[in-house]
Amino acid sequence: MTWIALAAMGVALALPPFAIALRNLGLHRPPGRPREGAAPPRVSVLIPARDEEAAIDGAVRSALACEGVDLEVLVLDDRSEDRTAAIAGEIVRQDGRVRLLRGRPLPAGWCGKPWACQALAAEARGDVLVFIDADVRLSPDSLARMAAFLAETGSDYASGVPRQETGSFLERLLIPLIHFVLLGFLPFGGMRRSRKVSFAAGCGQLVAVRREAYRRAGGHGAVRRTLHDGLMLPRAFRRAGLRTDLFDATAIATCRMYRGARATWRGLAKNAVEGLGAPRVIGPMTILLSGGQVLPFALLAVAPLLPPAALALASAGAAMAWIPRLLEAARYRLSWLGAWLHPLGVAVLLANQWWALARHLAGKPSSWRGREYTPSLSRMGGAS
């Protein structure tokens, strides 16, 4: 294959996510404020917590600081071995809006988070259920705005990616790719016009649902075997004929998803085979990502060898890969290091997903919070 053909292939593979991302940046908006005079919605904030002593206090207190809603906060201590329950119990004694639930033993056929979320939802009294991870911090107006988004859009499920706080090099390199994949490969217009399951997407860190719709979709019981509830729960809603949507959560929530390189690598790998690393997905995505996001930069690295036409094409491909990342870094307050090192980040992400798939095919379970799981291939994204 000639240099020109290689460079042209890079442009062809970089163009679709470039165009989709630019369009999505205009469609992805933060939830608006509730109408003046509207009655405060009844909202239940549901927090599953397993060994979260370092995070649970901040999560609960940020929820309690929310305004404009009739609020309750439920924490489920999922058989923690640290001080999670004691810390949450102290807040319960200080504020009657908080309830602490004790997790029951994990039954066969369930993963830990869906089991905890299902138990929380069963005890909730709100009309709007907001599921957050223990490392999420809500802004005071967040709950009212998420409830308003559901009402304004007519959605049954809505989710947003909080502003991602990153520390280690690997966090800054890989975590911002959440926005890149979401904005570059999911046409938001199609998602809103269609209820097809293939348009489902979400972020398990921050989810708001209508209580009745959650019941109709089967709740987390419909996704009991998954480690990737951010993807699988909106699919369950769409299978039930319900509407799902996405909002920009940058201004209303923050999250430190993982801490350190080891946690980042294993955290992204734990649900890989249910998403990007699914057997029927990873091959095409490797071609798309390596060809459109890495190849143009590899060609520029050998620029002296390229004829002028190939150099121009490689430069265009690199620009189409880079521009969305730089716009996303500015818009969502993401790591600039990750944006500038975009091709390296994509290459490392693909290595992580292939590593996770190889472990799965070798029969090695995913491990998280002291539990081991083996997702079923029949439940994976792209595998059915």
Describe the model.
Helices cover 50% and strands 16% of the residues. By secondary structure, it is an alpha/beta fold. It has 2 domains: 3-25 and 271-379, no CATH class; 38-169 and 186-258, Spore Coat Polysaccharide Biosynthesis Protein SpsA, Chain A (Alpha-Beta Complex). The strands form 2 sheets. An 8-stranded mixed beta sheet has the order 3-2-1-4-7-6-8-5, sandwiched between helices. β9 and β10 (371-373) form a beta hairpin.
CATH superfamily of the largest domain: Spore Coat Polysaccharide Biosynthesis Protein SpsA, Chain A
- Percentage of helical residues? 40-55%
Principal-axis shape: globular
Low-confidence stretches: 377-384
Specify the CATH class of the largest domain: Alpha Beta
Number of domains: 2
What name does the CATH topology of the largest domain carry?
Answer: Spore Coat Polysaccharide Biosynthesis Protein SpsA, Chain A
Counted by DSSP, the helix tally is 15
Largest beta sheet: strand ordering: 3-2-1-4-7-6-8-5
Task: From the alpha carbons, calculate the radius of gyration and give it in angstroms.
Answer: 21 Å
